Amino acid sequence: MADDTRREGIVRGLYAAYIDGRKDDAGAMLTEDFSFSSPRDDRIEYFSRCWPEPPPFRDMEIEYLQIADDEAVVRYRAEKHDGGAFRNMEVLRFKGDKVASVDVYFGRNV
């Protein structure tokens, strides 16, 4: 249970760092061999592709978060600066107290 609470804090911190554009803080939460994949990208270089300047979203609300063993499943609603919004699901895998991988599953615009 303590691991789950600590990992929930890491997940929430990672999403908050993304919204705020705090790349260094996010990097400290990831393993050295971190991988990121989505339906469009397979194990891409995360920071060069997914962290544009300025941050692309106005807000990101975690609607669902479940931790089980070394995985976290997250559903979030992201609001873009232009007023559009969408939902995605992500599976984060942990190695110890760091995120080792993220797999994104695209949702629809809301």
Automatic annotation (TrEMBL):
The species this protein was found in: Rhizobium grahamii
InterPro entries: NTF2-like_dom_sf, SnoaL-like
SUPFAM superfamilies, per database record: NTF2-like
Gene3D superfamilies per record: 3.10.450.50
Domain named SnoaL-like: residues: 11-101
Protein known as: DUF4440 domain-containing protein
Pfam families: SnoaL_2
